[in-house]
Backbone:
């Protein structure tokens, strides 16, 4: 499969290969995730296989159960083992949680814990995009909501790979964004000459993700914007725009800086889907936070509060201080 | 050394031994090797009411309520060598039976020959009374709890399960059926034009309409199906083992039955009612109960929009993507 929609220069191709190779060396994906990805989900035995695979990983099992019993799912009854989670929450839900959680885990490497680009906010944005993508999938019925969630969570994974493999170059990108006011994407292309979508899709391919997921990562920055939603890629691109519009940016906190928020139009289905959630985007943001809290077992660093009156008050306080 | 001397002196002094036996709060009874009473001391006299002369030289059978109890105790002793806190019906002088707790042992000489038996008997009748009283109170309590439970789980008007209980029962069935995903059908029903019924005929008629639908659903469902009132005029049926065809068939039969069930308002006028329904099935449409309910709800809404009094089994806009997978 060719995964470059735009042919890359030789130098860029080499850099792409280098980044992906280094990343796969530094962040070995747990076998649980690989197995979960490759599960043939339409076979009846799949649910049992999934439960067996997840149960073999105690850390993942603990996270899954914590999440299952949290307000994230708002499930009234206590879920006490993986088997119950698979039956009550559904196999696809459990699978998408397992994959997302394994990848978030894989990138928990010390090399990435440096300033400038906030990894907590990176995942905050990613999970928020995943949740919005899931909602759009429900609304449009284009793909399974759970697959949309996974695709949303992973859409920017290339950025982490670039940061991991080329820390100095990535530092330049962050510098350009923070101090020169450049857009992340422009800075990235200026420094790396390749976009994170290429890195991410190549990585996903290496991880043997299904083709639809690989192409949704590759195509989530359509050159002409998103006008209609007709496949998983459009769906993720639209969810990405919707989150950026709300200030839930990737790795940077622009919640209070309206000038840097995306203003690109999104198809109407996106807002219909978001508005069906009680509390809208604020609820989605809370859910994303709960997800990360339970998956990483610690409270994530978060965006400045920006919903409702309290956001204004707190912003004022910050200004006065 | 002085203490040990006292101890031996105590054991070898018949007067003191006798006093010790008399002071025992339990009945102390010894028999010879064939079960003839040779010692009748401690609380025996007050407990059984017999004078020593009345029982000495007789089998200890005379102190037990019946042959069966006697044989039971004798056999247990013979096979085990001892019994401890053995509850057995005993009898007082005059024939009043009471419950006794007996600890007993076979006394043997140093060559293993049987010397006789020693029994320590405690009057257990009060404990028994308290225990019996507790037991009957407990039974009453259980009965009340199950009644309360029923009240908490069921809707008073229709007698169907409440929403939460119905979902919980359905989850229990799913959890029992295991991971290989036995078929499981979900049907949501909604009474058509309920507000108009309430507005035109009053809430009493509205209640009767709801009860009628509940009765129809229960009649249409099988023994193992779970039927509940989902909310105001919404009903749910969970059908273990039913695929999409089966649950659609069920919903259609229920719809027709509701259509035929007229609710009599007066002698010469009865009301026609109808329901709309949306159905879904695990695993063909959804892989969890919540998802199946959500899909069934979507389809119920589609049934309403399409003109009511119908069952919808596919997603709106003819989209078969979910049901095809």
Residues:
């Amino acid at each position: 499969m060719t995964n470059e929609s735009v042919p890359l220069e030789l130098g860029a191709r080499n850099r792409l290969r280098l980044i992906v190779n280094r990343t796969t060396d530094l962040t070995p994906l747990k076998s649980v995730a690989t197995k979960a990805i490759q599960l043939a989900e339409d076979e009846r035995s799949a649910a049992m296989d999934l439960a067996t695979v997840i149960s073999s990983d105690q850390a993942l099992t603990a996270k899954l159960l914590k999440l299952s019993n949290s307000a994230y799912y708002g499930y009234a009854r206590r879920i006490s083992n993986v088997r119950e989670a698979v039956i009550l929450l559904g196999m696809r839900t459990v699978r998408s949680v397992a994959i997302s959680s394994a990848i978030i885990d894989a990138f928990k490497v010390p090399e990435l814990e440096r300033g400038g680009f906030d990894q907590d906010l990176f995942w905050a944005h990613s999970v928020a995009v995943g949740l919005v993508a899931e909602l759009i999938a429900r609304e449009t019925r284009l793909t399974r909501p759970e697959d949309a969630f996974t695709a949303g969570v992973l859409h920017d994974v290339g950025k982490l790979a670039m940061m991991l493999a080329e820390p100095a170059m990535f530092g330049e990108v962050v510098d350009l964004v923070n101090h020169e006011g450049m857009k992340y994407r422009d800075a990235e292309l200026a420094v790396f000459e390749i976009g994170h979508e290429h890195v991410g899709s190549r990585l996903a391919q290496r991880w043997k993700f299904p083709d639809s997921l690989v192409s949704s990562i590759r195509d989530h920055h359509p050159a002409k914007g998103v006008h209609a939603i007709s496949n998983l890629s459009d769906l993720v691109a639209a969810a990405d725009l919707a989150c950026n519009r709300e200030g839930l940016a990737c790795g940077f906190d622009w919640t209070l800086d309206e000038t840097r928020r995306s203003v690109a139009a999104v198809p109407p289905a996106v807002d219909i889907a978001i508005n069906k959630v009680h509390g809208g985007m604020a609820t989605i943001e809370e859910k994303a936070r709960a997800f990360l809290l339970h998956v990483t077992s610690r409270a994530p660093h978060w965006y400045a509060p920006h919903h409702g009156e309290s956001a204004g008050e707190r912003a004022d306080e910050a200004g006065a201080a | 050394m002085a203490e040990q001397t006292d101890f031996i002196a105590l054991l070898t002094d018949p007067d003191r031994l006798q006093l010790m036996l008399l002071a025992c709060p339990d009945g102390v009874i010894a028999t010879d090797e064939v079960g003839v009473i040779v010692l009748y001391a401690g609380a025996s006299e007050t407990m059984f009411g017999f004078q020593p002369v009345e029982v000495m030289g007789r089998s200890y059978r005379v102190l037990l309520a019946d042959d069966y109890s006697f044989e039971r105790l004798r056999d247990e002793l013979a096979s085990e060598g001892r019994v401890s806190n053995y509850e057995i019906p005993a009898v007082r002088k005059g024939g009043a039976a009471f419950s006794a707790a007996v600890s007993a042992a076979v006394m043997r000489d140093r060559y293993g020959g049987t010397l006789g038996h020693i029994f320590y008997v405690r009057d257990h009748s009060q404990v028994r009374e308290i225990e019996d009283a507790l037991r009957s109170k407990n039974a009453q309590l259980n009965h009340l709890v199950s009644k309360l439970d029923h009240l908490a789980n069921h809707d008073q008007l229709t007698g169907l399960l409440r929403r939460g209980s119905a979902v919980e029962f359905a989850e229990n069935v799913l959890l029992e059926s295991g991971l290989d995903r036995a078929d499981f059908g979900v049907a949501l029903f909604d009474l058509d034009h309920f507000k108009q019924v309430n507005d035109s005929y009053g809430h009493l008629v509205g209640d009767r309409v709801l009860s009628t639908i509940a009765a129809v659903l229960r009649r249409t469902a099988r023994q193992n199906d779970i039927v509940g009132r989902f909310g105001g005029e919404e009903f749910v049926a969970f059908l273990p083992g039913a695929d999409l065809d089966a649950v659609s068939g069920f919903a259609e039969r229920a719809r027709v039955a509701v259509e035929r069930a007229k609710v009599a308002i007066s002698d010469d006028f009865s009301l026609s009612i109808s329901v709309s329904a949306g159905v879904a099935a695990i695993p063909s449409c959804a892989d969890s109960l919540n998802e199946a309910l959500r899909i069934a709800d979507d389809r119920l809404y589609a049934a309403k929009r399409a003109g009511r009094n119908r069952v919808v089994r596919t997603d709106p806009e003819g989209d078969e993507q979910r049901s095809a997978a």
Q: What stands out?
A: Confidence is low (pLDDT under 50) at residues 318-325 of chain B.
